[in-house]
Amino acid sequence: MTSAPSRDVGGETLRQPRKYVTLAARRRRTAVVAWLFAAPFVISFGTFGVIPLVSSFAMSFTDLRVTDIRTPFAVNFVGLQNFIDVLSDSSFLNALRNTLMFVIFGVPVSLFIALVLAVMLNSLGRRAATFFRVGYYTPVVTTIVAVAVVWRVMYQDDGLINSLLASIGINGPNWLADTTTALPALTIMAVWRSIGSSMVIFLAGLQAIPMDVKEASSVDGAGAVQQFFRITIPMMMPTILLNAILTTTGFMQFFDEPFVMTNGGPLESTTSIALWVFRQFQWGNYAMGSAAAYVLFAVIAVFALIQFRFLRQRT
To answer: Is residue 195 packed enough to be buried (19+ CB in 10 Å), middle (13-18) or exposed (0-12)?
Structure first.
């Protein structure tokens, strides 16, 4: 322990009193510094996140339209009428059906392909795994508009996909102009684009499994298939749950693909809830759009609860 500083006064040494900082003062100073660093994020999140969220929720219980922007506090309170109108609107119900079909078929296929790719990459060497991981993840970081434009060209009558089908004697359909193939075509593109992020998460979960567990099962006579279903899958359940929730949430907010590739057509066969909400705001129906957005939030919450209940019991 260092001694207190001293000074000579008239030939005598006097010790200066030591200054002690209490624990409470030190905590207060640390808290002030922490809040100063967090202040930019807190202010921006409150301004562009919390305030719009609360405002839109309040807006969904009013009859606010674009003509009421100058007098937003003079609108009428309508209660749950907007939610009733949304749930009884045939075009919204059609958008809800399209979104559910997109999620029900797209999410399982995306997770399955991502898990298979992750298992394959986990068995490769580090350099080869890194190379393929970058290749599969590239569509995720590519601008969705650019990806959608490229796929729209591929889906044309004389595009790459129909040319490949013609090479084996199959007459390809007009993918984006047919009501029976437009939504599956968008689902295929969305699955191709989303498997990269799911694969990276699955790969991290696979690499976190202790090797001694697999070695012990090999000593006990377990084969590769038994190890996968009896060890890998059970220990990967938290990762599978995380991936399922993230992928489902992303697919439920299905917007960019139909907006760029089909504009919701043909005959609203690819209109999603997010696109329907966007159109309500575009047409000035702010209250209806807000109510539909919270209906979408409720649907996402229900899917998340179902996944938690089904998958968390197996973790």
So the answer is: buried
Helix or strand run (H / E) with residue 133: helix 126-141
Residue 6 to residue 11: CA distance in whole angstroms: 12
Annotated domain spans of the chain: 15-46, 81-312
Multiple choice CATH, 81-312, 3.90.180.10, 1.20.1440.230, 1.10.3720.10, 3.40.30.10 = 1.10.3720.10
Single pTM value for the model: 0.82
Q: Which residues of 266-287 are buried (b: 16+ CB within 10 A; e: fewer)?
A: bebbbbbbbbbbbbbeeeebbb
DSSP letter for each residue of 17-34: PPPPPPHHHHHHHHHHHH
Query: How confident is the prediction along the chain (315 residues), in pLDDT tens digits per residue?
Result: 445 555 555 555 555 555 556 777 888 888 888 899 999 999 998 899 899 899 889 999 998 888 887 777 788 899 899 999 999 999 999 999 999 999 999 999 999 999 999 888 888 767 777 777 788 888 888 888 888 889 999 998 888 899 998 898 888 888 999 899 999 999 999 999 999 899 999 988 888 888 777 777 777 677 777 777 778 888 888 899 999 999 999 999 989 889 999 999 888 999 999 999 999 999 989 999 999 999 999 999 999 898 888 877 665
Local structure of residue 48 (DSSP, 8 states):
I
Residues 6+ apart with CB under 8 A from 5: 15, 16
